[in-house]
Amino acid sequence: MTPTAAAGDSAGRVPRRAVLAAVSLALFCIQLDFFALNLALPDISRSFDASTQAAQWTISAYMLSVGSMFIVGGRSGDLFGRRRVLLAGIALFAATSVGAALSPDLASLICFRILQGVGAALIFPVGIAVVSNAFPEEGRARALGFLFALASAGTALGPFVGGGLSDGPGWRWIFWLLAPLALASLVIALRVVPDSREQGAPRKIDYLGGALIAGGIAAFSIGVDQGSSWGWLSAATIVTFAGSAGLIVAFFVHERRSAHPLVDLHLLRNLPYDLVTVMGAASNMAYAATIFVASLSLQDTRGLSPLAAGAVFLAPSIAVAVSGPLGARLAPKARPAAIMAGAALVAGVSLIGLTVVVDWWAYVAAFGVCGLGLGTGWTFANVATQELVSTERAGEASGVVLSVLVTMGGVGVAAAAAIIGGLERHGQGASDAFDTTLRIFAVLLLGCAAAAMAVRAYLVRRGLVAPLSMRKEWPVAPAVEASGDG
């Protein structure tokens, strides 16, 4: 290597690391925000003299906003420039954090949370695409692994920070903490994030398609969130789900006819991408349910304070942070679907272990291993997506995956709540109901892992995907090329 080339590489590495730092800090804020506020709900209820169910809308409204806007956010970055969209998302997130901290009533807080969710929906898929485009192919998986490791530090600290601030100065300080952190990310991003976009694509966003898919996901999420309150067979629930189905079907019909579709439907024919998305959805569904059940169990059954419960959550949260670099190291050695099936196997077994251990040290250890398995499923779905699609449409692909993962996370929480409620109505005590619910999700994970590998084996026999062997000389037929090598 010549001195000039070496200097160029060195000069290139510094901005790339700064880009990684800017995006990681923004994603850290999003993760910290969500996981800190979960343990602050009782404090919010007391602050506004509201019911816990009403305060829950500070979480639900945010998730509705995030889940329904991911696809629009990701595609907007591809079309209009990822730098511009990322900066807009971070600025919106910072501003609405201040607004949330100053909220005079619960309605105002919920409105700011909706806008904060829009900011997060711009940051997450576009930030992933920014990192993908900033790093060369050989270093991309490692960079994304570190991105999710640093972002997941927010997951690790969220319950601890939320519990500590709720027990101390109050929930508003969660947002006062987020505002300067988001501002720091914005300042760094302004200096170092380069622009990238899909070259040659018309700068036209499919607004009708965006409205249809956002409305369909939002309606589905509302039905899932409110189904237990309304009654799963009530007219309101049925109408909400029917409306969601109609909007989503209309979206696919429209996308097939649109000259400039929001989502290229050929993406759904990428079989490894589909497998990774399904496995990631199962992992996030189980992850959200596990966090929900464990929060109830630690505080209601084991009698821990929010701060002490947050301390217990450090074990799985740190394991989630470790899962990012772990997945990046495994990426060159195994196919994405196999990595995620293995992660689901680890998570399923440890979930069962979580329901049978008695000693605290064993509980924390099982919880940590569970976090490693579920975290690998969540983070690696995002890492693998960037390896299985063109970098030009990285934001779009990331937005679709994130929409599915976040929406199914909401399904996981609603399903866990419904299972617990049903078991308690049939005479089970709270502790037994919690354990049974976790075992159900463990079986779901184990079943998904087995099904994914069975489907993959069938596709290998048909010549539609690469075999598990990582040999480079495996021939790829023209019909298989678009399907990747997952």
List the SSEs and their pairings:
Elements: H1 3-38, H2 41-48, H3 52-55, H4 57-80, H5 82-101, H6 106-134, H7 137-167, H8 172-192, H9 207-230, H10 235-257, H11 271-301, H12 306-312, H13 314-330, H14 336-354, H15 360-388, H16 394-425, H17 430-461, H18 478-481
How would you sum up the major sheet?
none
Uncertain residue ranges: 1-14, 472-483
Counting structural domains, the number is 3
Strand content: under 5%
The helix/strand order is HHHHHHHHHHHHHHHHHH
Helix content: over 70%
Question: Could you characterize what this model shows?
Answer:
It is a single chain. With 486 residues, the protein is mainly α. The chain folds into three domains: 15-192, MFS general substrate transporter like domains (Growth Hormone, Chain: A); 218-261; 268-468 and 476-486, Growth Hormone, Chain: A (Up-down Bundle), CATH 1.20.1250. 80% of the residues lie in helices and 0% in strands. The chain contains 18 helices and no strands. The two termini are 34 Å apart. Mean pLDDT is 83; it is low at 1-14 and 472-483.
